Amino acid sequence: MASNYCEGRVVVVTGAGGGLGAAHARCLAEHGAKVIVNDINIDAAHAVVNEILAKGGEAVVNSSNITDFADSANIIKQAIDTFGDLHAVVNNAGNNRDRMFASMGEDDWDAVMSVHLKGHFCTSRHAVGYWRDLAKAGQMPVARIINTTSGAGLQGSIGQSNYAAAKAGIAALTLNQAAELARYGITANAIAPAARTGMTTAVAAMAERMAKPEDGSFDYWAPENVSPLVVWLCSAHSSAVTGRVFEAEGGKLSIADGWRTTQGVNKNDQWQPQELSAALEELMSNEVPAQPVYGA
pTM score, two decimals? Predict the structure, then answer.
């Protein structure tokens, strides 16, 4: 059921021409947000905007390149010029170039880093500049950054070292943003969604596993299942929550509990190499093992 949960909130969604981004844009509009639908596929972006307008929502198309620092500024400028303000950025755009690490080329690495990690930086940096100016002028914003990481970035994923590294970087970026930007009225959180999209169903086995049920039962892998969390994070109701990574799939929500320092072993002096086998055996015997790498 639609609500006014984000009534009047102006939200940028990158990569919103399809998949999760389109689902987020539609859900945000249903709950009162004014949405800038960014995608380099302008026809896909127009289709999403037309859907929103047909249902009485407000949205505009933007085709700026999120990997270009200068061009990405136009996303934020369009939001402000069109709707008079900006309240949230949902960094969703992504790509993949899957290869085993031993076969990965420089172009495969750079393409994924550019769209995921640099794309998150560019759009957010311009938004933060706007919000910081407001805060310094005494108009403290109620601003939101929602980043998109992945289980691949949290645990690793066989055949996706570029994607996993970029997504891990996004999770760390989120923690830094939360710590640095609170003074300007900005929260920063990340989501690690699991849903049926063009990227996840590119492999036949995944497409079969995530297929929409034919019997009309709950569509566990529908991207729309993730979007209500995005709406909540974009809203004014989430002010007390920052620096978190939420995992979302189907009807399940959880928090990714990140790297933590263990109690450790302390010699109170410099270790010698010949002492370390016993010391590290003790150290590792008390650790909580990490979740397995996907595909391992």
Answer: 0.93
